[in-house]
Amino acid sequence: MITKPKGTIDFLPEDTIKRQHIEEKLRLISSVFNYKEIRTPTFEKTELFKRSIGEETDIVSKEMYSFSDNEFTLKPEMTAPVIRAYLENNLQNISPVHKLYYISNMFRHERPQAGRFREFSQFGAELIGSNDYSADIELISFGHYFLSAFGIKEIRIKINNIGNISERSLYINDLKQFLESYKNDLSEDSRKRLSRNPLRILDSKDKKDREIISNAPVLYDFLGSRNRLHFQNVLEGLSDLGINYDIDYSLVRGLDYYTSTTFEILSDTLGSQNALLGGGRYDLLSEQIGGKSTPAIGFACGLERMSMVLDAIKYKFPEYNPPMLYFVTSGEPAKKKVLLLISKLRTQGIICETDLLSRSIKAQMKEANRFNAKFVIVIGENELEANEIRIKRMIDGSEVRINFDNLTNYSFE
Ligand code: AMP
Question: Whose CA is nearest to atom 13 of ligand 1?
Answer without folding.
Answer: 302
